Structures are given as C-alpha cells and as structure tokens.
C-alpha cells in the first residue's frame, strides 16, 4: 500500500530527541550552553542549530539555571563559560562531571580570557577542551563538540569492555 504524504505523521521533537523512543536511535546531540553573555550564547547556539538539525540546544544565562536544565533534561554535551556571575564555574563542573564517572558527559570550556591557570584547572576537573571565544567560530565549536563527544564515547566503550566476558 502506498501512503499519501497526509497519512504520515511526523514525530514530535521530544520523541526525536529521545534516542530510546520506539527502540530506535535518532541522531541528535543535546547541547547545554551555559554563558552569561547573551550575545555570545546566542551566536554559538544559532551556529549549532543552523549547522545541523542533529543539535538540540538548550541555553542558560547563569550557572544555577544551567544546573537546573542539566538535571531536568538528557544532556550529551555542556559548553560552559568558565567565568559565571552567580556561581563558580568549577562548582558547576563538579556537579556535572562526578569524579567517579568521569567523563560522564562531554564538557567544553569557553571563555573570553586566555588564562593558562584557569584552563589547566578546568581540564583537571573534567573539561575535555577549553576554547577562547575570540579565536572560536561556531564551526570550531562544533568540531570541539564532536571531538569531546568522541572522547566520551570511547571512554564509555572502554569501561563497558572491561566488564564483557572474553571468549
């Protein structure tokens, strides 16, 4: 039977974003951008959304609102400004990347300031990479997200393979 276009019902976005819906994985990466600068956050979020429909982008203007979104949504990657006005970014990072499960989620640090000390600490606390805003286009951010997601996936696969029986 040939179906007419009017017979096909599109999936709601919430179903498409859930990789376990209907037992099939839909290609989507949920990205949480935590950045107090609305212009910067908007620039990178718009760039991700326009580059691919695979991105479901959440935006937060503060550390607290970012943590609220993180706790209530399935988030694959966090892009975290390392200087937040309401809470220390390292506290946010500690909530997102528990030490026992590092790396549980891909995390990129994004900042206006080029400080080797800050980036070194962020990398030690679970950030996969740190990017400087003035040197980072939305395309470069997307590449960073893909690299960080690959690193997390490799880590998860390695952890799982440690528990698989050897034949």
Short synopsis of the structure:
This protein is of the alpha/beta class. It contains 6 helices and 5 strands, in the order H-E-H-E-H-E-H-E-H-E-H. Strands 2-1-3-4-5 form a 5-stranded parallel beta sheet, with helices on both faces.
Order of helices and strands: HEHEHEHEHEH
Alpha-beta content class: alpha/beta
Number of helices: 6
Instruction: Give the total of beta strands.
Output: 5
Spatial ordering of strands, largest sheet: 2-1-3-4-5
Rg, nearest Å: 18 Å
The largest sheet is: 5 strands, parallel
Spatial shape: globular
The level of helicity is 40-55%
Average pLDDT, rounded to a whole number, is 79
Which parts are unreliable, with pLDDT below 50 for 5 consecutive residues or more? 1-24, 160-164
Sheet-strand content, in percent, reads: 15-25%
How would you sum up this structure, described in words?
The chain is of the alpha/beta class. It contains six helices and five strands, in the order H-E-H-E-H-E-H-E-H-E-H. It has helices at 13-17, 38-51, 63-72, 89-96, 116-124, 138-161; strands at 29-34, 55-60, 77-81, 106-111, 129-132. The chain has a five-stranded parallel beta sheet with strand order 2-1-3-4-5, sandwiched between helices. Helix 4 (89-96) links the parallel strand 3 (77-81) and strand 4. Helix 3 (63-72) runs parallel beside helix 4 (89-96). The chain is globular, with a radius of gyration of 18 Å.
């Amino acid at each position: 039977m040939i179906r007419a276009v009017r017979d096909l019902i599109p999936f709601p976005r919430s179903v498409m974003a859930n990789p376990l819906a209907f037992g099939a994985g839909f290609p989507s990466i949920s990205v949480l951008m935590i950045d107090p600068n609305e212009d910067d956050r908007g620039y990178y979020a718009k760039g991700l959304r326009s580059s691919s429909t695979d991105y479901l982008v959440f935006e937060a203007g503060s550390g607290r609102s970012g943590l609220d979104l993180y706790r209530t949504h399935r988030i694959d990657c966090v892009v975290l400004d390392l200087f937040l006005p309401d809470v220390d970014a390292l506290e946010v990072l500690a909530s997102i990347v528990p030490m026992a499960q590092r790396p549980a989620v891909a995390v990129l640090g994004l900042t206006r300031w080029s400080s080797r000390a800050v980036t070194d600490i962020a990398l030690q606390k679970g950030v996969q990479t740190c990017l400087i805003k003035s040197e980072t286009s939305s395309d470069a951010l997307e590449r960073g997200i893909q690299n960080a997601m690959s690193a997390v996936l490799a880590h998860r696969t390695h952890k799982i393979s440690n528990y698989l029986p050897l034949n």
